[in-house]
Design brief:
Blueprint lengths: L4 H12 L21 E5 L2 E4 L4 E4 L14 H13 L8 H13 L5 E5 L2 H16 L3 E5 L12 E2 L9 E2 L12 E4 L4 H11 L3 E6 L2 E2 L5 E2 L2 H14 L2 E6 L10 H7 L9 E4 L10 E5 L1 H4 L18 H14 L4 H22 L5 E5 L2 E5 L8 H4 L4 H13 L2 E2 L8 E2 L6 H19 L1
Parallel strand pairs: 3-17, 5-8, 5-9, 9-12, 12-13
Antiparallel strand pairs: 1-2, 2-3, 4-14, 6-7, 10-11, 13-14, 15-16, 16-18
Length: 434
C-alpha cells in the first residue's frame, strides 16, 4: 500500500503545532479525514504532498482572485523583495496602494494599512468607540470579524442579549458592550436601537456573510442599518475582508448602492484581495473619523510590519490586474456557470440544494431554499455535506472543508475546470440521492 505523505506530515505536525495546523478549519475536524498539505500551486490548481492535483475553490480563502502565480504579481513581488523585505519606515508604494484602494471604494477618504483582517476589524471597533465617545457595538450572529476578544461573541436567547464569549480566555466583561442580533431581522434591529441607540458606537456587519457560507443582507435590512446608524449617531462598519474587490470592483457596498442610491458605510474593513495573497489588510473611512487615529488623534494603533513593501507590491499588482476592462464581468459569468451547473446537477438527482453567488464568491447549502440567518444555516445537512466534500476531494475538486465557508472562483479557472467540477458533483449527488 502506497504511503500517504499527507498522513505522515499531519502526524509530524501534531507534535509541534496545536492540532497540526495554524488556523483551525484547516484541520478537517468538521469533515473528517486528513488535510491536504500543499506543495505548490499554479493557476486554478494546487498539488498536495502526494503530487495529486486539485481544482482549488478556496484560493487561500479568497485572496487569489487572479489564480496562483500570476506573472505580473510574481514579477512585482520579485522586484520588491530584491529591494528589501521590511524597513519600519514609510515607502512610496504604501501611498500608491492607498490611492488605488480609495479610488475603487470612494466611501473611504483615508485608510490605514495593517497586516490582517482581525487587526483591521479590531481597530475599526476601537476607532468607532473613540470617535463617538460611546462603548456599545452591534454585531450579528454568524458574522465573523476576526478573533479579537470583543468580537468573539455568540447570540443570547433574547433580543439584543449582551454577548457571552465563544472562546475560552475571553472574560465576560470584555464583551459586555457587544450586542448580538439576528442577521436580516429588521424588527430586532429597530428595537435594539430604540433601547440602546444613545450608547451605540457602531454596528459592524458582513454585507455578504461568508462565514455562514454565503448569506446576503437583504436590501431592506441594509437600508435600515444605514438609516438607524445615521439617526442615532452610530458608525456603520462594513466588514469587506471577504467581499472587498471580490464580489465587485467597488466591493459589496457598490452592489448595495445600485439599489440604495447614495448608500455608503462610515468605516470599511478590507483584506484578502487587496493583499493578493500576502498578509495585508486595511481599514478606512471619512477624513474626520480617520484623523482620530494617532499620531493625529487619541485612538492608538501601530504595527511593525504594517505597509510591508513586499505585501504592498503584491496587492498593488493584483488591483491593477482586476481593474482591467471586462475582468469582473468575465469572473461573475464564470462563477454563475459553476453555481448553475451545481444546482442543475443536484436537482437531477433529487438532492435538496440552493446556491448563490456574486462576482467571484459563491456558496451553497443542502437546503431547498437559501437561508437568511445563522439559525437557518444551521439546519443544513452536515453529514451529507461531509459526503459531498470527500466525494469531490476524491475526484480532484477542493472546496472549503467546512459547511459554513464560502467558495471562490478565480480568473484562472477555465471552462474545462467548471465542467469537470460539475461532472464530479453530479457523480457525488447521484450517490447522495440514492
Amino acid at each position: 500500500m502506497k504511503t500517504d505523505l499527507n498522513d505522515m506530515l499531519m502526524a509530524r505536525a501534531r507534535q509541534v503545532i496545536p492540532g497540526g495546523v495554524n488556523s483551525p478549519v484547516r484541520a478537517f475536524r468538521a469533515v473528517g479525514g486528513t488535510p491536504r498539505f500543499v506543495q505548490r500551486a499554479k493557476g486554478a490548481y494546487f498539488w498536495d504532498a502526494n503530487d495529486t492535483r486539485y481544482i482549488d475553490y478556496i484560493g487561500s480563502w479568497g485572496p487569489m482572485i487572479l489564480g496562483h502565480g500570476h506573472p505580473a504579481v510574481e514579477e512585482a513581488v520579485r522586484q520588491a523583495a530584491a529591494d528589501g523585505f521590511s524597513f519600519g519606515a514609510p515607502t512610496e508604494r504604501e501611498i500608491e496602494l492607498a490611492e488605488e484602494i480609495l479610488a475603487l471604494v470612494p466611501s473611504m477618504e483615508m485608510l490605514r494599512l495593517v497586516n490582517s483582517g482581525t487587526e483591521a476589524g479590531m481597530t475599526a471597533i476601537r476607532l468607532a468607540r473613540g470617535a463617538t465617545g460611546r462603548n456599545k457595538i452591534i454585531k450579528f450572529e454568524g458574522c465573523y470579524h476576526g478573533h479579537a476578544d470583543a468580537l468573539l461573541v455568540k447570540a443570547g436567547s433574547g433580543l439584543a442579549t449582551f454577548g457571552n464569549p465563544t472562546s475560552a480566555g475571553v472574560p465576560p466583561e470584555v464583551v459586555q458592550h457587544t450586542l448580538v442580533l439576528e442577521y436580516n431581522n429588521i424588527a430586532q434591529l429597530e428595537e435594539a436601537f430604540a433601547q440602546h441607540g444613545k450608547d451605540l458606537a457602531g454596528l459592524i456587519i458582513e454585507p455578504i456573510a461568508g462565514n455562514m457560507n454565503f448569506v446576503r443582507a437583504t436590501v431592506e435590512f441594509t437600508r435600515r442599518c444605514r438609516e438607524l446608524c445615521t439617526q442615532h449617531g452610530a458608525l456603520l462598519i462594513y466588514d469587506e475582508v471577504m467581499t472587498g474587490c471580490r464580489v465587485a470592483l467597488g466591493s459589496a457596498q457598490s452592489v448595495y448602492a445600485r439599489s440604495i442610491p447614495g448608500f455608503e458605510p462610515d468605516i470599511t474593513v478590507m483584506g484578502k484581495v487587496i493583499g493578493g495573497g500576502m498578509p495585508l489588510a486595511a481599514f478606512g473611512g471619512k477624513r474626520a473619523v480617520m484623523e482620530q487615529l494617532a499620531p493625529l488623534g487619541p485612538v492608538y494603533q501601530a504595527g511593525t510590519l504594517s505597509g510591508n513593501p513586499v505585501a504592498t507590491a503584491c496587492g498593488l499588482a493584483t488591483l491593477r490586474e482586476i481593474k482591467k476592462p471586462g475582468f469582473f464581468d468575465a469572473l461573475a459569468a464564470k462563477t454563475r456557470r459553476l453555481v448553475d451547473g451545481l444546482t442543475a446537477a443536484a436537482a437531477a438527482e433529487g438532492v435538496p440544494f440552493s446556491a448563490d453567488c456574486e462576482g467571484g464568491m459563491f456558496g451553497f447549502f443542502l437546503l431547498p431554499e437559501l437561508p437568511q440567518n445563522y439559525a437557518q444555516v444551521m439546519t443544513s445537512d452536515g453529514a451529507r455535506f461531509n459526503q459531498l466534500f470527500h466525494g469531490l476531494l476524491d475526484r480532484g475538486v477542493y472546496i472549503a472543508p467546512a459547511l459554513y465557508e464560502a467558495g471562490f472562483v478565480s480568473a484562472a479557472h477555465n471552462e474545462d475546470d467548471i465542467a469537470a467540477t460539475v461532472a464530479a458533483a453530479r457523480e457525488v449527488f447521484a450517490q447522495l440521492g440514492g
